Amino acid sequence: MIQVKQLQKEFRIHQSRAGLGGAFRDLFSREYKTVKAVDNLSFTVEEGEMFALIGENGAGKSTTIKMLTGILTPSSGDIVINGFVPFKEREDYVRSIGVVFGQRSQLWWDLSPLESFRLLKSVYKVDDAEGEKWLERLIEELDIGSFVSQPVRKLSLGQRMRCEVAASLIHKPRLLFLDEPTVGLDVLVKQKIREFLRNLNETENMTILLTTHDVSDIEALCKRVLVMDKGKLIFDGLLSDLKERWGNGTEVSFQMKKRTKASELRNVLGDMPCTIEQINDYSLRVQVPRSQEMLPFVLSTVMASFDVSDVKIMETSTEDIVRNIYRTDGEVANHA
Ligand SMILES: Nc1ncnc2c1ncn2[C@@H]1O[C@H](COP(=O)(O)OP(=O)(O)OP(=O)(O)O)[C@@H](O)[C@H]1O
User: Fold this and answer.
1) Which domains does the chain have, with CATH numbers?
2) Which residue owns the Cα nearest ligand 1 atom 10?
3) What is the pLDDT of residues 27-60, one digit of tens each?
4) Which of 105, 188, 213, 295 has its CA 20 to 30 A from that of 65?
5) In Å, how far are 18, 50, 117, 245 from 201, measured between CA atoms?
6) pLDDT at 334
7) How far is the CA of 116 from the centre of ligand 1 (A)?
8) Ligand 1 pocket test target in 15, 33, 35 with most atoms within 8 Å of CB
9) CA dist 106 to 97, 98, 111, Å?
10) Is the distance from the beta carbon of residue 67 to the nearest atom of ligand 1 less than 6 Å?
């Protein structure tokens, strides 16, 4: 579905000189700096994959999405998506993709989403009977029926975002790009959008690419993750591998029925390489290393030896993982 080979994008940025004299000199000769926003990016994606592109601010995610959607022309390298070269065959290509930019709207502000949907239907020349059935399904699954006839400017962010997702899918594309689709939304709306996307991927085999800063988006939706840093791809693989290699392990909190000291827990866990922290007289936190087999052992040993009233298991967040990758970025280049 997607083939990207040695993709590069450079921007030439004007450098302003300092002070009044500098501004005066700028009038006659300008200084420029070249920024490599995307640097030698290569990856392939099969039809029906749902994957995430992550990285810190300025890593090059938006520039990549803009090249993949045909908005920007690469400085060099190749992109072939669904048989099209995006920036060369834009008109035909955009009929096969849907795009949601979390920060920008594709709905008409003074019209209702429903009117925008109808306009988009005629822009994309969507077949009427089938298109209407598809639209009904989008309205139902995104649960937007109760406000789809109100002007967009009167909708809340969460309501509008669900309408944006519907608008991007009016022409039933094979591929959907979402740039920060859940930014600023509350938990319930996030959940609704995620559920919808999962269902779309399963029932329509739609290929979905997501960029996000919200780690729970990735955990809920994607097995595969691409991590970018300073324009380069530094990891391409399973989220589970990413966690195994760069995660901090698992944190388990035990709430005890009786007063329990960290030293008592240490006695039963023996030489197990985990750290134990006393939270208060009745609760303790155990940091279990990455190895998968250790967690069941810690849980069963502690439960068998103490009167435990509650247990909470917390996995390392993907944000921690990305931070860990950045700390060792010299080493990770080999894993992309
Ligand atoms: N139109 C442009 N002109 C000049 N430089 C640009 C332009 N667009 C992006 N850049 C630069 O390219 C680099 C990558 O930017 P990009 O927006 O792709 O990052 P990002 O990973 O999407 O970041 P964020 O998470 O903040 O959106 C940055 O250094 C940015 O300043």
Assistant:
1) 2-244 (3.40.50.300), 249-315 (3.30.70.1560)
2) 37
3) 877 777 888 999 999 999 999 999 999 888 888 9
4) 188
5) 52, 7, 21, 28
6) 43
7) 30
8) 35
9) 14, 11, 12
10) no
Which ligand 1 atom minimizes the distance to the CA of 63? 18
Q: How far apart are CA 25 and CA 327, in angstroms?
A: 41
Cα(33) to ligand 1 centroid in Å equals 14
DSSP string, 214-263: -HHHHHHH-SEEEEEETTEEEEEEEHHHHHHHH---EEEEEEESS---HH
Nearest CA to ligand 1 atom 26: 57
Instruction: State whether residue 29 is helix, strand or coil.
Output: coil
Q: Match 């944006």 to its residue by tokens.
A: 164
Answering whether pTM is above 0.80, one says no
DSSP string over 125-159: T--HHHHHHHHHHHHHHTT-TTTTTS-GGGS-HHH
